[in-house]
């Protein structure tokens, strides 16, 4: 970069500088197993059409948390999709389990995609340490982090 004009040299640094800039932290909310977390989503087909005076409430709940042997847990993520004026993307859901200092991804055999107004029950399984008592299941969706805690049954 020594022989480059100063404006070109600065442009070369932009990818490096932006790669180090962390994005905003997702908004976090928490509840126990069997309890719902309400997340407001804008109504409208496209961001420029969102109605700032109206939000639709999606409900997220973790239910039926049961042990599968000593090192696996199964549970159901229920999502109540409201009328938003557009499809509701479920393909970008990220779900994991944490216990005993370990964090593991939750797995589902369901193919998740675009959803319409309805209720969706998505079964998951997750590896956990033997003897797990308290379990944290984290759901990240859009700009939200939802944390559900409890003891597997």
UniProtKB/TrEMBL annotation:
Top-rank taxon: Bacteria
PROSITE patterns with a match to the protein in the record: PROKAR_LIPOPROTEIN (PS51257)
Descriptive protein name: Lipoprotein
Species of provenance: Nocardiopsis lambiniae
């Amino acid at each position: 970069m020594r022989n480059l004009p100063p404006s070109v040299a600065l442009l070369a640094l932009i990818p490096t500088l932006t790669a180090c800039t962390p994005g905003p932290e997702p908004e976090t909310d928490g509840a126990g197993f069997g309890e719902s977390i309400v997340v407001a989503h804008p109504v409208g087909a496209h961001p420029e059409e969102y109605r700032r005076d109206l939000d639709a409430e999606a409900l997220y709940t973790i239910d039926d948390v049961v042990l599968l042997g000593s090192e696996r847990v199964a549970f159901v993520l229920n999502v109540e999709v409201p009328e938003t004026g557009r499809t509701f993307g479920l393909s970008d859901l990220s779900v994991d389990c944490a216990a005993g200092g370990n964090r593991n991804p939750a797995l589902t055999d369901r193919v998740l995609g675009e959803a319409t107004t309805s209720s969706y029950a998505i079964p998951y399984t997750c590896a956990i340490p033997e003897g797990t008592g308290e379990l944290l299941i984290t759901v990240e969706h859009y700009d939200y982090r939802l944390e559900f805690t409890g003891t597997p049954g």
